[in-house]
Sequence to fold (650 residues):
Amino acid sequence: MNEKKIKFVQGNEACVEAALYAGLNFFAGYPITPSTEIAETLSARLPQTGGKFVQMEDEIASMCAIIGASLTGCKVMTATSGPGFSLMQEALGYSVMAEIPCVIVNVQRGGPSTGNPTHVSQGDINQARWGTHGDHAIITLTASNHQDVFSITVDAFNMAETYRTPVILLFDEVIGHMRERLVIPEKGEIPLVERLKTSVKRDVDYHPYLPREDGRLPMSDFGGVHRYNVTGLFHDMWGFPSSDPAIVHGLLRHLVDKIMNNENDIARYKEHYLEDARTILISYGSSARSALHVVKNRRARGESLGLLELQTLWPFPAEIVREKCRNAKSVIVVEMNMGQVLQQVRAAVDKPENVFLANRIDGVLINPTDIRNIMRLIQGKGV
Amino acid sequence: MAIKDYIRERFFPHMWCPGCGHGIVLNGLIRAVEDLGINTNDIVMVSGIGCSSRISGYLDFHTMHTIHGRALAFATGIKMSRPELNLIVPMGDGDALAIGGNHFIHAARRNIDMTAIVMNNRIYGMTGGQYSPLSGYGTLATTAPYTNIDHSFDIVKLAEAAGATFVARSTAYHAQQLSDVIKQAITHKGFSVVEILSQCPTYFGRKNKEGSAVDMLERMKDVTTPIGSKAKKENPDLIERGVFVNEEKPEYCSEYKKIIERAMKGN
Fold:
């Protein structure tokens, strides 16, 4: 293997490497801990490839700028953390409504408000789902190690193009700042999805918002050969504002269905020792590392423990969770919030009364001993 | 091209009230583009939210109707990706200077090549006549039933202080001049601001007893004067019209091109 392709980097840098691998050529952002290394690295790397980097006046402007650039044909990304993610929500909704591909990285810190900026948290799961107003579907992905950060970031760009939608990458402070080995795949090793372009010729009436039968929407680069309108209002196939009930209904169904009908294609997860597991841990992000440690450790002592690591958080892979947990006596969700994924797991499984929470919410990474102690409490054994 | 070749007739009639000044701005803008001979395919118009922002839908350019106050930020992404295109950003006074004030000053500071047209009717028309940052002390609005105690921005001074390299003001009454300053603004390489006083007889006019649309237009003639005129010296309250700033300064996209050249050499 080419040694140059092996790096020892922060998770934030792994995300940058993946974004460039996926074809990122426009980034706009605003400094915020713990995501700033993404902007710093890209300010150097992007212009080396002819790409553009701009530090905007705030996160609102950053989100707007990437949407504008994406419309002209660029692959775009922004990166932020909790407070900045809150500011991006209105424009994020615009990219849902106008169907403009983009990737938003949120390296989570403790919240609410300014919260615990340099410490770990996984508190933005529900905000990623419902942060912007109105009915909509959204894709949100996460990862627990740098190799997975790389592949899931490439996935995020691919899904953004496939479904013409914003994709949220929810990392956490530990993943963002921890250093570990990353092997950068050869070009072509991970397939890339390029933008689906319209075949409609110049001077032929082009309908920018008329989906194909498969729900996909071919694009024409804004500023190119077709002149059309883009709006955040409900709109017809020309992209013109409309409040016609049939158009409003049809568009909202399209926006939701194009994601929800492909739930299984979007679902990413990893399983460890699930076949005979009587107790299943469900986790994601950095807490999944601790959970995996517990599983391996207890397996060695003969306990039938397994781990389901979620990488797709939204749409929540409820069917998969239900299926995997069918034979488990108990399910323990390991996360660093007050139970945001716990709620989803309880709603998904056959016996919600057997689902428990093992969490930490104090800005400290939940470690294997924490999980083990909580498990003993759940099992009525005392610590 | 004929005027109607610039508009999307499919989407008319427009949604502006009878007597609104925004149609005059639309007309003046089309005449400016026609005079400059710019291909409609080379113009991108990005707008925000409000009465003024609907202008984008009516024009057969590449048009993007975005969210309230953020049009300049969207436009920045487009311009940086496609610097060869002409960016025109029409905004209302509330859109540009209340919710969008931060983006306004920062776009000016960067001196990114685009034309910001502020259609200043001193009111939030679309939501029904609330006071804006340009309504002015002592005016009335649906959210200032006793009197407005907010002082106004001076758009020209603000734009100049923020770093805009072309700043002009005209009015809907001075249709010839408004078209002429838009023309200069589009041609200028850098961030251009054109403030156009526009009338809202439905809300501002009615609330402040300024009469009909015609009365309001007549008033624009009376309260404005060319920059540095004798009348201004005699009556400092008169609002000046014309080109205030027209200077050269490194433009953002041209400068970024140099950054790319430097970064690539370092490879």
